[in-house]
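seq as requested:
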Amino acid sequence: MGMRNAASVASFSFSMRRKLTSQTQKGKIFQPIPTSPPEITTFLPNSKTTHHSPNISNRKKFIKFARYHSIKSDFDLFSLEDATHLFDQLLLIEPLPPISTFSHLIKAVYKMGHYETVFSFYRKMNSFRIPPNMYTFNIVLNCLCHLNRVDLGYAIFGEIIKRGFDPDAVTMATLIKGLFMVDKIEEAKKLFFKMVDIGYPSDLITYATLVSGICKFQKTIEPNSRASEVISGVSLGDALYIFDQLVLAQPLPSIVTFTQLLGAVAKMEHHSIVLSLYKRMNLVGIAPSMCTLNILVNCFCHLNQMNSGFAVFGDILRRGYEPNVVTVNTLIKGLFMVDKTMEATGFFAKMLDNGYPFDIITYGTLVNGLCKSGNTGMAVGLLRVMDKCRCKPDIRLYSTIIDGLCKVGLIETAMDLFSEMAGRSIPPNIFTYNSLIHGLCNLGRWEEATKLFDEMSDQDISPDVVTFNILVDALCKEGMTREAHGLLAVMIQRGEKPDIITYNTLMDAYCLTGEMNEAVHLFDSMLNKGIEPDAITYSALINGHCRNGRIDEAIRIFGEMPRKELKTKIVNCFNNLIRELCQVGRVWDAQELFNEMQAYNQSPDLITVGC
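struct tokens:
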């Protein structure tokens, strides 16, 4: 029964739309727009006499005046006060003007951005029993969406159906946009799918609105937040369904809409599927834009197919496009991803010689790749290249190089760059200080590390959890576990929450010194704070109990490990437990652990096999 009703509504509304279209073509809904202003100046209130009552004795001239200024007027001269005055006077005319006059007036107010006023006009029109048309409804609906009142927008949608109109593509696109504006992506998606199922019309604007909304939400997703499975409620299946609708649409949506959808799928990390969709676009004759080709380059880079990435680069040149900084940055990053450092720097040098402009992101990509591959000297050299190219290094770039230098023990060069930053009036940030303090602590240069820590406080830069973790680790390595534990209390007092690294460092230190009760107390405290243990946590405790002859406790903790993947990461714990069990004569228990170890596809070391 419900399906028959839905079909009846759809059939009826489609027939109504045809009638409305026919009426529009005959001029019954909207009268022709005047091309020159009527010679009337007394209808608007004078700025000095705002209560002046206009002359409305000539009905036709007044309506013509109202329509002209609603459509053509300069908003600097035609104010909200003028529009409100005209609206009130239109309501006094008998018989009332046609709905087209009111619709054009509220459209003018909408363009001014006075959405609440538009809704007020609409309610007043209802009180005067002025029947709205689809044009009116769509304007009011748009205003409600801008006011984040999509709930009232649904009420307007119901009113459209109640009055026998057929919601058109503009109506549906506006509702979808309104849902996105209030972060209701799931509802927006369901509305679109329901539109398609019922047969409501969709146009290029509908598709563009839906895809743009999805891309907007992608920008709010945190990195590494299950992006490969779903993006804010839009799954890969949803994206593919939308793509199918796009290629079937007539006329085809613009390349912008297709490109946005390809970008959405790429962000889900389904890079191979992006390439497949691009082939389908080619089959239906959709020519790629520069942005489309950049997405392809990015996908090939993530798939470690650099030859194909450079093939797209050649295609860009053949199509007459100019490779932009995004293209070059992506290719450089891709080369670093496959450990082709020399090729990355060579490509950069070639593009630089050809006069391609680079931005700070290019240099940042190079610096990051060089530092990760241990080529910190080349990274420092890039700073000098930037000086010649008049591209000013920023704090992020300096901090990356300083961090790389500290990790390989080149603390003096790092400190020189730190001084250079001050000379260039580039203030350091918490990452800069953390890198230097870590480097100094690793070299045992406590006095200089303390000086930097004090300087950081003087600069009103508060230590974060990374800073405290560096200090805790350094103190534990010096055998000062109690002092390191004291920093835990300081962190909490300052409102800085300890993380898994903080607890793991302290627990490992206590286990190494045989203070297992303190380690277990920290473990319980961590659980009480809702911090989930990882493989390092369990490894420290299990090995600590083994070293201190507490085999049963070690086995108990090993059995409590909640996730299968954790056991595959601590093969050394298997080995230690088996050896300890053999040493105390518990051969059968050792054999069971050995069998379990093999079940996890883990291989024992030679010492364990010798047991």
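Residues 2-25 form the longest helix (24 residues).
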